[in-house]
Amino acid sequence: MIIERLPESILNFLKEVESLGFVMTLVGGAPRDFFFADTIGADLDFEIRASVDVQAAHWAAYHQRFLDFLKHKNYSYKVLPYLITRVEIGTFQLEFSSPRTETNREDNFSHHHFDAVLDSQFSYQDSFRRRDFTINAIGIKLDVKNKKDELVDPYGGLHDLKAGLLKPVSEDFYHDSVRFLRLIRFQLKFNRFVMDADLISNLKRFNLSGLSQHYFKEEMFKSTPGKFINLFTKLISEHHLSVPSEFNVWMKYSFAPELKTREELVGFVFQQDKKDAEKVSHFLNLPAKILKDVDSFTRSLQILSSIKVEDLKALAQKPEEEALADSFFKEVKNCEEKKNWFEFLHFNRESLLFGPDDWKDAVATSESLHKVKPALRSYLPYLLALKTKYKT
Questions:
Q1: Cα 5 vs. chain centroid, distance in angstroms?
Q2: Which end of the chain has less neighbouring CB within 10 Å, N or C?
Q3: Are residues 150 and 133 in the same domain?
Q4: pLDDT attached to residue 226
Q5: Are residues 155 and 15 in the same domain?
């Protein structure tokens, strides 16, 4: 039973809510991951109903007792549209949503493509119909007081979970462009799963003309961005789908699968095309400094990569003032100041004849610094490291 696995602080909270006249059903990711991997995360989503018959017209007023309770007990909470309420308890975030149905709006393929009706008396089959995949339409109805729980599975999600099948709950799946993105994320998350045959044949039905940059980034960074973009491109191409022009830059490249951060994505594209890197940076809402940094870093790195052993040995042999005046140390310092880009660009630092591993522990004493012109003092530790490695 999942109820035995919930922390005491969460159970005590749920017991209080239950005593107010509510029934809570754990839905979404928590039941899915519990049955799939025997894990419970810190994000818990509940569908909250009245424990007595309450007509739809009176549901909002009845639900208000839940909000009054949160306010009276000084819980940290936030109320969102459709009576969705998020509550923070320690490291846990709980989300409570009302049972609702959604009716598609004609010719609207955005994430807000529906009109909603909230009603505590909706059946689970009706309220779960709005969910995306059957594996996300599994519920666990809680009876906290009696320490019992009950499986709610109107769409056979548990069977599909065990079979490794990604299957939409209903035809409404194809009316929401964000669900195309969620399909990609879940295909990567459950990489041994296969798409339902009907799902594959119906992907062409997606209208992505209103695809949102916001949701693209949200779903991409919940996944592994490099893999996410590659699968996005593959599905778009295979099923002849059209996307808004600002997404075209992603379609031009086959991304390294391990890329995870915004900086890594920009850096990867920068090495192919600087103008496209500007588009990616703008898409990701990165500050202008990012592009300046990667440009500056790669210029310095190019110099460090091209220098020869005999040049380094000759530089190490020069008198201190003459050596410090060499522009080489300016590039070394610049690479050190922007050293995160070694990781962002996945550059093998060991390939450098003189790199971060050589200068990382270099220090200069106060006495030696005072013997050098102020403008050159910051370069002295690097020169000492160079002498240690190459002076004969």
A1: 26
A2: C
A3: yes
A4: 97
A5: yes
- SS3 of residue 356 by DSSP: helix
Predicted confidence at residue 366, as pLDDT, reads: 92
Q: What is the pLDDT of residue 115?
A: 81
- The Cα-based distances of 88 to 17, 45, 63, 94, 222 in angstroms read 14, 12, 18, 6, 20
**What is the reported pTM?**
0.87
In-domain check, residue 135: yes
The answer to whether residues 305 and 259 belong to one domain is no
Q: How far is Cα 346 from Cα 366, in angstroms, rounded to an integer? A: 35
What would the two tokens of residue 178 be? 């964000």
Question: Would residue 291 count as lying in a domain?
Answer: no
H or E element in which residue 220 lies: helix 213-222
Are both 55 and 105 inside the same structural domain?
yes
Average pLDDT of the chain, as a whole number:
94
3-state helix, strand, coil in the chain (%, to 5): 55, 15, 30
Which of these, 99, 97, 167, lies nearest to 132 by C-alpha position? 167
What three-state secondary structure class fits 195?
A: strand
Domain CATH for 19: 3.30.460.10
pLDDT in tens, 89-143: 999 999 999 999 988 666 654 555 558 899 999 999 999 999 999 999 999 999 9
User: What residue numbers bound the domain in which 263 lies?
Assistant: 176-286
